[in-house]
Please model this.
Amino acid sequence: MKKLSVFAAVFALLCTFSVCFAYDEASLSAAKELYDLGLLRGNASSFSADAMELDRCATRAEIAITVTRMLGKEQKAIYQKNAHPFTDVPDWAGDCIGWLYENYLVNGVSDTLFGSGENASVQQFCTMMLRVLGYSDKKGDFSYDYAVSTALDAGIVNEEIASRTDLLRSDMVIICRKALNAHLRNSSKTLSYKLYADRVITKQQYEYLNGGTQNTLDSFFASYEKNGVVGKAYYENGNILLQMEKDVGDYGLRVFYASDGSSFPVSLAINSQNGFTRSLVKSPFKWNEYVTLFTIHNAKKENASLKVAYTSSEGDLYDVYSVSPTIKVEEYSPYEVSLEDYFSDCRITLPAGRAYYGSDGISIKLSDKISNYGVRVVYTSDIQTYPCELAIESSSFGFVKGDVDWTSGNGLIDEITVHGLENHKNIKFVVISSTSEGELFSTNGVSPVISTFQEVNYENN
Model:
C-alpha cells in the first residue's frame, strides 16, 4: 500500500443507507453554475434538478471526482489513467481516483477497498476543499479535527452545513461555489482565478464568477514582496524577448503575462506553444540552470507586461517565493549571441555535419551515427539571433529524430529533420547529446556548428 497520503485522514467508514433531503434554490443555482463551468455533472446529458440528485448524500467516489475537478486536473487524470489498487471503484470514477492516489491525495478504507459508495462527511469534504485552496494540515495551517471551523473562517461553508455530519450533494455544490471566490492560502488570488489561469474555465466565466472584476499583474501579486530580479522585455518577430539583469535559477521559475488583449495574468509554461523557452543559460547543461534570457511565444502587443516569479515547484500546485517588479515590454531588442560564442566552453565530441532544405523541412546530416537518446537541437537564424533549443516532435518549431538503427544495440541516428523554420535564413545548428530526455539534464557533448545549405541532393554531399 502507498504511504499515508495527505488526504488519508479525510475518509472514514460511514453508513451507506440512502435518505432523501430537501434542497433550496441557492443550492440549485450553485449546481447550475458549477454545471455550466464543467465542474459538476449529474446522471443525465442536460441539467435538471433531478439529474443533479441534490437531495441525497454525496459518496466518497463523488467527492473524489469533485476535488479533482476543483483542482483543474480532471482532463489530466483522464489522459494519464493512473492505476490504483481498489476493487470497488466504478469505471466512471477510476481515472480521478487513480490520479489522486498516484499523487498521494487519497487512500482507501483498506489496501483493496476505496469505499466508493459510502457516504462522505462534511468534515471530510471541508478538509479536501481547504487543501484545494492551498491549506496544509501537514504544515499546521489547520487540523482535521478543526477542518469545519477553518472552512467557516475561510468562508467556504455556512453554519447550517457546518452543523451536519453527513455531506449532502446540495452541501457539496454550495461549498464548491463559495470556494471559487475564496482566496488561496496566503495569496491575493482566488480559486476561480487559478482555474482561469490553468485554462480550466474561460475569461468570460471568470469575469462572471467575480462580478466583472479584473486582476492586473500588480493587484495579482499585491501581497508579495517585489524582491525578484529586475529585467527588460522587447518585442521581436511576433514574440517577446525577456532579458534579466543577472542570472536567475530556472527551477520553479514562471513567467506571468498580461496585456490589453488579455487583462488577466496568465502563468506561462516552459516550452509550451503559448509559453516560453529558456533561450540563453549560463550553465546550459547542469542541474539548476541559470537563465538570462527567455522567449515568450505568440505574445499580444497591446501594452504587454510581465512578472517573473520563483515558486516551490515545477508542477501545478506551488507556493510563490518572490516576484520581479513589473516589466513593461518595449519595442526593440539589440540582443545577439552566436552559437560559436555560446558553446565556446563546451566539449565538441559529436561528429560534424551539414544541413539542407528539403520538402519536409531542414535535414541535418551528421558524418557519423550518434545515440538516439537525449538528442537536442539548438539554432540561430536571421530571425532568432540568440541560441534557442528546439522541442522534440513539437507541432511547430521543433525537430524529429531520424530513422533509428538498433542493429548495433544502442539505437543510433545520423539524420534529424527540423521543421517550422521555413521563413528563417542563415540558419545554424548545434546538435547536443545529453543525459536525459527531460528538462533537467547534463551534456555529454556537442557538435561543431552546422550551417544550412540550399542543396537537396544528399547523396552527392
Q: What stands out?
A: The first strand starts at residue 231 and ends at 236. Residues 339-460 form a domain with the Immunoglobulin-like fold (CATH 2.60.40). DSSP finds 13 helices and 18 strands in the chain.
